[in-house]
Design a protein that fits this description.
Structural class: mainly alpha
Strand content: under 5%
Number of helices: 2
Number of strands: 0
Helix content: over 70%
Distance between the termini: 11 Å
Radius of gyration: 16 Å
Number of domains: 1
Shape: rod-shaped
């Protein structure tokens, strides 16, 4: 692993975090006073996307950390 490779992994992690934050905000925006089942279904779907984005972020973080450990 080169330092250039580390930079790519760091950028991938930062992008994953940005996508996760976006998913969190999208989920939060759906927590509206509309108490209908349709609104709840949309909110649940957004929550699943948020969980997927969080998992992707965690995976990206671990990949980056493993590469750092190999170099150091």
């Amino acid at each position: 692993m080169t330092y250039a490779g580390l930079s790519e992994l760091r950028l991938a992690y930062k992008q994953a975090v940005a996508e996760w934050v976006e998913a969190i905000r999208a989920e939060e925006a759906l927590a509206v006073p509309d108490h209908s089942m349709v609104a709840m279904d949309k909110w649940d779907a957004a929550h699943l996307k948020e969980q997927d984005a969080g998992a992707k972020t965690a995976e990206s973080r671990e990949t980056y950390k493993e590469a750092l450990r190999k170099i150091h």
